[in-house]
User: Which sequence fits this backbone?
C-alpha cells in the first residue's frame, strides 16, 4: 500500500482518531482489535525489600521479558495523520511484521511518544 493510498484512507475515514499498529495477529477490515496490555521493562515491587513483584513476568510469547501491568481500555497505536504517515510507518516497523491502520472515536494518550490508546479500535486497512 502506498503512502498516497494511506493518506486517502485517512482523509475518508469516519473516525476521530487514527493510528498505525503492528500486531502479530491476523485481523480483517472492520474487526475490532483486542485491547493492549500495559507492559513494563523493569520489575516493580509491592514492598521496599523488593521481594514480591507487583506485575507478573512474561516468560512466553511475543512479550517475553516484560512485566504485565494489565489490560488497557483500548488498543495502542502510533497516532497518524495525513502529514506524518512516512515517519509513523518507519517507527512502527520495529514493533512487528503485520501493520494495520486502525480508528476509533475515543482515545487516551499512552506513555510513549505519539502513542494513543484507541477504544474499540476497528481495522481500517492492512498496510
Assistant:
Amino acid at each position: 500500500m502506498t503512502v498516497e493510498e494511506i493518506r486517502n484512507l485517512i482523509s475518508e475515514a469516519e473516525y476521530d482518531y487514527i493510528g498505525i499498529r503492528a500486531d502479530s495477529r491476523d485481523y480483517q477490515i472492520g474487526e475490532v482489535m483486542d485491547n493492549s496490555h500495559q507492559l513494563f521493562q523493569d520489575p516493580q515491587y509491592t514492598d521496599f525489600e523488593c521481594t514480591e513483584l507487583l506485575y507478573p513476568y512474561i516468560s512466553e510469547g511475543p512479550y517475553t521479558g516484560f512485566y504485565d501491568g494489565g489490560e488497557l481500555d483500548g488498543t495502542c497505536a502510533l497516532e497518524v495523520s495525513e502529514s506524518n504517515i512516512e515517519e509513523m510507518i518507519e517507527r512502527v516497523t520495529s514493533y512487528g511484521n503485520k501493520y494495520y491502520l486502525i480508528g476509533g472515536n475515543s482515545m487516551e494518550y499512552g506513555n510513549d511518544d505519539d502513542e494513543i490508546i484507541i477504544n474499540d479500535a476497528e481495522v481500517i486497512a492492512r498496510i
